[in-house]
């Protein structure tokens, strides 16, 4: 039994599928199956049962998955502590951010890092929440900003700040004194929403389910600039935090109403792989993000 086999097994256990785990790990399915067979031989026990929908953990498999997560987490912390003994902050850190959070924090993050750690190289990738999570799990990204919801158990996730959600509309659709709108009324409007890959869509669907109402967007678009442009053309309404539209709202190009009954909000989360040690540069980025989180304009405290 080795660490590579344990890491692979944890991904299989989480996804319930050899093919999906192989895709995430950038392995062929036969290669992943060989790792699993070697692990079962080393432990002299069956860890998985194949079903029509994928694989299911045996009792021994469930026990191993729980213990393996602890072992891998401890190993990652040990490797990170040893890495931290190096004093100079260098290297290359890959960070993934969703568009709405990127507007708020990317500029301040890069400015602070260039000032404090001039020898550190940083790459910023803007992508949907689901794609940022997959980037972390595949190892393409070192650090990611996610929104709360279905975050993988393989990821560490800690809240940075809270965003209240608003209905964003063309000015002609909003009365001069209107500042709030009930969620029931939001669902009756023509909505322009991201697709199911986006964390915001999942948040809205959950709220609609609790209200016993369907969520039926008239248009789906995953690009923030497309959502904003369509609302500006008065083709419908969308839902976003005010912080992602500071310029449009301050100039009156768009109007925002707080969603109430119930109020809707989401947490912005700082995330990285449990079993992947952070470099000194990665730790510097995380510390800087934590520091900046308390200064974000229009972001609510947790």
TrEMBL record:
It comes from the Bacteria. Belongs to the LysR transcriptional regulatory family. This is LysR family transcriptional regulator. InterPro entries: HTH-type_LysR_regulators, LysR_HTH_N, LysR_subst-bd, WH-like_DNA-bd_sf, WH_DNA-bd_sf. GO terms for molecular function: DNA binding; DNA-binding transcription factor activity. It holds the Pfam family LysR_substrate. The keyword Nuclease does not apply. Residues 1-58 form the HTH lysR-type domain. GO terms for cellular component: cytosol. Keywords: DNA-binding, Transcription, Transcription regulation. The keyword Kinase does not apply.
């Amino acid at each position: 039994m080795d660490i590579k086999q344990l890491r692979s097994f944890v991904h299989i256990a989480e996804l319930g599928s050899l093919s999906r785990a192989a895709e995430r790990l950038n392995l062929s399915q036969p290669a992943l199956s060989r790792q699993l067979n070697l692990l079962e031989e080393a432990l002299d026990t069956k860890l998985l049962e194949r079903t029509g929908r994928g694989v299911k953990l045996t009792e021994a498999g469930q026990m191993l998955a729980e213990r393996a997560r602890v072992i891998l987490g401890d190993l990652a912390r040990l490797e990170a502590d040893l890495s931290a003994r190096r004093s100079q902050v260098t290297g290359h850190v890959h960070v993934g951010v969703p568009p709405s959070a990127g507007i708020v924090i990317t500029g301040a993050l890069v400015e602070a890092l260039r000032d404090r750690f001039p020898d550190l190289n940083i790459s910023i990738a803007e992508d949907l929440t689901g794609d940022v999570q997959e980037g972390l799990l595949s190892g393409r990204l070192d650090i990611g900003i996610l929104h709360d919801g279905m975050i993988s158990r393989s990821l560490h996730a800690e809240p940075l700040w809270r965003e209240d959600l608003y209905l964003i509309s063309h000015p002609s659709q909003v009365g001069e004194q209107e500042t709030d709108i009930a969620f029931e009324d939001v669902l009756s409007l023509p909505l322009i929403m991201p697709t199911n890959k986006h964390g915001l869509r999942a948040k809205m669907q959950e709220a609609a389910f609790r209200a016993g109402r369907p969520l039926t967007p008239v248009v789906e678009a995953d690009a923030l600039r497309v959502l904003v442009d369509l609302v500006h053309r008065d083709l419908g309404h969308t839902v976003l935090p005010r912080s992602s539209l500071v310029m449009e709202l301050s100039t009156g190009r768009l109007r925002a109403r707080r969603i109430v009954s119930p109020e809707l909000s989401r947490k912005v989360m700082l995330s990285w792989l449990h079993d992947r040690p952070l470099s000194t540069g990665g730790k510097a980025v995380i510390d800087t993000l934590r520091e900046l989180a308390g200064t974000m304009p229009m972001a609510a405290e947790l």
